[in-house]
């Protein structure tokens, strides 16, 4: 019998200790997937979440249309101190497995770009697909549930004290995500539980997050808020070809979110506007073919005027092309094609789509997601030190780790 419970009167007053075969803390993407795959194998599963709603991040994801996976999933799309850790789960539960679930539920979807698959309907459709499956399988989901303490009095026995009553279980799965987007219920709970049980965690920082400008750059680019440009953006030997978007605080857009996961404080970001064009060569070509044309007019054929003004505030662009030396044209072109800046910072966890770092994967089996030190304790999803690129990779990690863990629960 399916059971959806919010933590109110009758359960709180109950003196019963609930004894499901598995407890999953966190009713997000990874936790729901894990509950489904364990329940499919006949386990009684309870999911506990402190929020008043399951899957809040699924609901807001993909601009409201859930970019639920990507056609081109490769281990190289994931950042971790151990780049091999994600391989096994991604191979055992692939994007095609999740697409098959979406198709089975008859939910329409489409590819937007770069292999990114989005729901045609609102993200709620994907969440409801998971919740319906939980319901069919008799998974209990208890919301508004605060876990006050977790103890491990003997091997493979976990006792939990919560405001929804006492629980004990041989298998405890931590699927509480990490710190990004605290307004959606995100916490560092999972990292604290890992440390409580003697597991190491790696350094964490916001990922897939907009950059902020210092005061001078903010002033320089003030008029460009809302302007989006196709670029190639690079940092620390990584490059992405996507749009950047100027904001009132700095820079966002897919290219910036991607590179932010590779950025550390103080590092230089390099931006190449018009990535398919050698602008110096193009200007020299124009100089030869139309020497009387004014430089500003030639630039305007490639770049919006507002952007030209912001990038070339110190340059005189009003002269005819023949009046510029090659070195001048090269310098002006490089303002667009080799723009280098050091972000003053990022917009932090408040605006980050993910948290980089987390529970050290050396502590966890890549097959079962069980802790190597504590029998019966599992970690899945974003709480681990595995972070995907933008584009459906983070959900695929949640589905894959959740599924493999659920199947492994003994
Ligand atoms: C704005 C935004 C848009 C995104 N869009 C996409 C996208 O389109 N595609 C994509 O692949 N990824 C996207 N992501 C990333 C994706 O949402 C996450 O990678 C994914 O949700 C992680 O799944 P998870 O189950 O590990 O954690 P979560 O989905 O964060 O779930 C964790 C759950 O644990 C609960 N919890 C936390 N602390 C406690 C506690 N102390 N006690 C009890 N419960 C607790 C939370 O309430 C939550 O329900 C987006 C993220 C954001 C913020």
Descriptive notes:
With 410 residues, the protein is an alpha/beta fold. It contains 14 helices and 24 strands. It has helices spanning 9-12, 29-40, 56-60, 87-92, 95-104, 124-137, 189-196, 215-220, 254-260, 279-289, 295-300, 305-311, 326-337, 393-408, and strands spanning 3-6, 17-18, 22-25, 45-48, 67-70, 78-79, 109-111, 116-119, 140-143, 147-154, 157-162, 165-169, 171-174, 205-207, 211-212, 228-235, 238-246, 250-252, 269-273, 339-341, 345-346, 354-356, 377-379, 387-388. A hairpin with a 4-residue loop joins strand 7 and strand 8 (116-119). Helix 2 (29-40) runs parallel beside helix 6 and helix 2 runs parallel beside helix 14. The model is unreliable at 6-13 (pLDDT under 50). The structure holds flavin-adenine dinucleotide. Flavin-adenine dinucleotide is lined by residues 25-31, 48-51, 56-57, 60-62, 66-67, 147, 175-177, 180-181, 185-187, 189, 353-354, 381-382, 392-395, 398.
Ligands, ions, cofactors: flavin-adenine dinucleotide
The low-confidence parts are 6-13
- Going across the major beta sheet, what is the strand order? 20-19-16-17-18-15-21
Amino- and carboxy-terminal Cα gap: 22 Å
Biggest beta-sheet profile = 7 strands, antiparallel
Radius of gyration: 25 Å
Helix content: 25-40%
What structural category characterises the helix and strand content? alpha/beta
**Which shape, going by the Cα principal axes?**
elongated
Which band does the percent of strand residues land in? 15-25%
The count of DSSP E runs of length 2 or more, i.e. the number of strands, is 24
The overall average pLDDT, rounded, is 95
How many H/I helical runs? 14
């Amino acid at each position: 019998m399916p059971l959806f419970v919010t933590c109110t009167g009758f359960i709180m007053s109950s003196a019963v200790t609930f004894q499901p075969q598995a407890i999953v803390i966190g009713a997000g993407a990874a936790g729901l997937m894990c509950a489904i795959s364990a329940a499919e194998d006949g386990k009684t599963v309870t999911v506990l979440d402190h929020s008043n709603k399951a899957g809040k991040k699924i609901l807001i994801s993909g601009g409201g249309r859930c970019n639920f996976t990507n056609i081109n999933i490769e281990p190289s799309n994931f950042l971790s101190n151990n780049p091999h850790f994600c391989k096994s789960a991604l191979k055992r539960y692939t994007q095609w497995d999740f697409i098959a679930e979406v198709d089975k539920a008859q939910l329409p979807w489409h590819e937007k770009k770069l292999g990114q698959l989005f729901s045609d309907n609102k993200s709620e459709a994907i969440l409801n697909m998971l919740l319906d499956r939980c319901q069919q399988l008799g998974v209990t989901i208890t919301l508004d549930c605060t876990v006050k303490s977790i103890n491990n009095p003997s091997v493979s026995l976990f006792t939990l004290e919560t405001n929804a009553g006492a629980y004990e279980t041989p298998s405890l799965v931590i699927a509480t995500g990490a710190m990004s987007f605290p307004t959606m219920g995100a916490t560092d709970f999972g990292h604290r539980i890992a440390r409580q049980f003697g597991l190491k965690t790696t350094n964490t920082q916001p990922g897939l997050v907009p950059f902020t400008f210092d005061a001078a750059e903010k002033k320089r680019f003030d008029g460009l808020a809302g302007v989006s440009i196709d670029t190639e953006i690079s940092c620390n030997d990584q490059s992405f070809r996507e749009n950047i978007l100027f904001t009132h605080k700095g820079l966002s857009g897919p290219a910036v979110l991607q590179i932010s996961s590779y950025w550390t404080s103080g590092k230089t970001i390099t931006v190449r506007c018009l990535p398919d064009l050698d602008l110096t060569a193009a200007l020299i070509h124009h100089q030869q073919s139309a020497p009387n044309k004014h430089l500003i007019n030639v630039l305007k054929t490639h770049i919006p005027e507002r952007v030209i003004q912001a990038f070339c505030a110190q340059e005189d662009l009003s002269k005819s092309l023949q009046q510029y030396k090659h070195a001048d044209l090269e310098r002006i072109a490089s303002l667009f094609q080799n723009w280098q800046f050091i972000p003053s910072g990022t917009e932090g966890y408040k605006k980050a789509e993910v948290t980089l770092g987390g529970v050290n994967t050396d502590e966890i089996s890549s097959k079962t997601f069980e802790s190597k030190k504590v029998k019966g304790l599992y970690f899945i999803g974003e709480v681990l030190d595995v972070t995907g690129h933008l584009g459906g990779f983070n959900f695929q990690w949640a589905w894959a780790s959740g599924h493999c863990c659920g199947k492994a629960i003994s």
